[in-house]
């Protein structure tokens, strides 16, 4: 089915006897004029879900405290207008405005996550370095990364913000990790192009294999959250990046009796 799409975003509707799931396969963006933002607005208004599930937030209902952080990220304090924020924040904001609860779908406890990955020979440093590498293109798009000299500060900030508890993992450590995984130190132009080596490829290079394995664990967990939500909610809107749908679609078909493309 994915070959029928020119690209993301698109919406897939799944129905059982008791529930409907709308899966919005988003293109990651901070552009309020984008098709992704437009589709989110349409679905929340016309589908009127009982629950909105988003990636990027830890599993559980999004609290008022967390919603305050969303507002701070999305709304200017001076004129109360939107400025660049990710589509998941926009989804949570619009849902809250309609009195609709939102839920995160992520296993963000790194201690738990790394226990899964240790079975496959990975360590905590591997996960930190991979997640940071995956973040670099977004730093570049958001004008936070202009030159190589910006990376040490961004690494320190990222490591501290997400409580990795790896104080000795320096920029030199990160460069050593990249060289070990790729056999060379890639230039900044490659680090800001996520497709270069962060794509989840089972038999790819070391970073691509780690991407595949983390994605596999993450997608299974996210699927569990979607299916478990149907015990309490009958109309669920899911807003995930489109690549997740490619991995999850077969399981969704198996558990949700009827699938129809919109």
Given the structure, what is the number of helices?
10
Number of separate structural domains: 2
- Average the pLDDT over all residues and give the rounded result: 85
Reading side by side through the largest sheet, how are the strands ordered? 4-5-3-6-2-1-7
Tell me the overall shape. globular
Head-to-tail CA distance between termini: 12 Å
Q: How would you spell out the order of helices and strands?
A: EEHEEHHEHHHHHHEHE
Helix content: 40-55%
- Largest sheet entry: 7 strands, mixed
The percent range for strand residues is 5-15%
Assembly type of the shown chains?
Answer: single chain
Rounded radius of gyration (Å): 19 Å
Brief description of this entry?
This protein is α/β, with parallel strands linked by helices and 262 residues long.
Features:
single chain; Protein-Tyrosine Phosphatase, Chain A; alpha/beta; seven-stranded mixed β-sheet; 262 residues; 2 domains; globular
């Amino acid at each position: 089915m994915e070959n029928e799409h020119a690209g993301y975003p698109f919406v897939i509707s799944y129905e059982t006897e008791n529930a409907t799931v709308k899966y919005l396969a988003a293109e990651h963006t901070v552009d309020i004029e984008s098709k992704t933002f437009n589709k989110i607005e349409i679905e929340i208004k016309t589908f009127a879900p009982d629950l909105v599930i988003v990636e990027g937030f830890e599993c559980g209902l999004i609290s008022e405290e967390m919603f305050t952080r969303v507002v701070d990220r999305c709304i200017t304090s001076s004129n109360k207008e939107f400025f660049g924020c990710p589509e998941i924040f926009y989804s949570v904001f619009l849902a809250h405005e309609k009195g609709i609860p939102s839920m995160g779908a992520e296993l963000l406890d790194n201690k738990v996550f790394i226990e899964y990955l240790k079975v496959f020979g990975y360590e905590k440093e591997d996960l930190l370095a991979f997640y940071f590498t995956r973040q670099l293109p977004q730093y570049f798009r958001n004008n936070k990364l202009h030159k190589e000299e910006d990376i040490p500060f961004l690494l320190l900030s990222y490591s501290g913000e997400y409580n990795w508890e790896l104080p000795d993992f320096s920029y030199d450590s990160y460069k050593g990790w990249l060289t070990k995984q790729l056999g060379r130190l890639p230039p900044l132009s490659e680090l800001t192009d996520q497709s270069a080596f962060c794509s989840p490829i089972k038999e790819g290079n070391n970073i691509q294999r780690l991407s595949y394995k983390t994605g596999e664990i993450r997608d299974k967990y996210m699927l569990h959250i979607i299916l478990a939500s149907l015990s309490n909610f009958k109309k669920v809107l899911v807003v995930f990046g489109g690549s997740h749908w490619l991995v999850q679609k077969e399981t969704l078909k198996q558990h949700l009796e009827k699938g129809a493309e919109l």
